[in-house]
Amino acid sequence: MAGALPLAKLVGLMVKTVSKPVANQLKFYAKNSERFERYYIALGNALHRLQVTVFRQSHGDVVTKRTKVKDLPPEKALDAGAGFIGDAFVYLVAAGVTVYEYARGRAKEARKVQKQEEEKLMVEAEYDRRINELDRQISSLMETAPDTDNKLELLRGDFERFREEVIRSLQLININTPTLAELQRRQSSSGVEP
Length: 194
Description:
The chain has five helices and no strands. The protein is mainly alpha-helical. Helix 1 (4-32) packs antiparallel against helix 3, helix 2 packs across helix 3 (74-144) and helix 3 (74-144) runs antiparallel to helix 4.
């Protein structure tokens, strides 16, 4: 899994790099295609009008709908339209790769969080199972054995060792769990016997 991340980034970089020659080919096709020539000229003139209008407005000129902007010569308009198509292609490819990488990173993070939650639930389930087992054993000993104090002390020792093991496990998976010393300090301050 660790090798997949650099491979994905390498493929993304390759796609971005390949998009530039493809954009140049689009520009060449646009300039030499009689079929689409008028569309590229219209696009080039529209971009020119937009550029002039924005330039005038940024310099404080009042621009109305009646303000006329002279069209570019057909050759320059064709170049501008074809250039725009090529640049738009490069930017769209770069944006697509960026969105893909972002989505991939989010999915990876979600899988990581889910795995941590599953590990936490497994540890908690095991902890609950063991506590229930120890409680059952303590209850059974208290009812049946005449020397329950000795056996109860043995079970308490087992319980304390298990609790220390669980606390270490929980701390390893980054759960905010008090240490054994903190738990003992809390128990002694509350007056509850472990």
